[in-house]
Hints:
The chain has 175 residues and is of the alpha+beta class. The protein is built from 6 helices and 4 strands; from the N terminus they run H-H-E-H-E-H-E-H-H-E. The protein has helices at residues 3-10, 24-35, 54-68, 95-112, 123-128, 130-138; strands at 46-51, 82-89, 116-120, 145-154. The protein has a 4-stranded antiparallel β-sheet. It is globular and about 50 Å long.
Amino acid sequence: xxxxxxxxxxxxxxxxxxxxxxxxxxxxxxxxxxxxxxxxxxxxxxxxxxxxxxxxxxxxxxxxxxxxxxxxxxxxxxxxxxxxxxxxxxxxxxxxxxxxxxxxxxxxxxxxxxxxxxxxxxxxxxxxxxxxxxxxxxxxxxxxxxxxxxxxxxxxxxxxxxxxxxxxxxxxxxx
Length: 175
């Protein structure tokens, strides 16, 4: 089995992170992998926002926690110090699919580099809100974007989870 396929089988979502910050050069490599994801007609209609500022990270976590309906104090990012937010340009018909491919590349690259990751939802609701639109404007981002997902990144605090056995009867052959 190739190393790439082995890494795909090993990667699992991490739901407990150490406080240690991921070095910028590693974050840059992960982001680069996301930028090379396939996209409809090669349009590259997705963007990635890197959040390492703890104050902003905590503000986003608080908003995500409220959208999810959890009690105060719950961290939907599981303590991850880095959040990469993937958004897709709303006027592009494949923006959700393209953004999903970006998320997959981010998580696989992180795993390959020894960094834990987890796809966290509710980015759509965050960036449909005035708060999210104002954040994009403050960053100089113009146009209409839909939040696809948050890629939580950090060093796993504990053993890496093992993949459960794959369910049967999920592949059908037409010959």
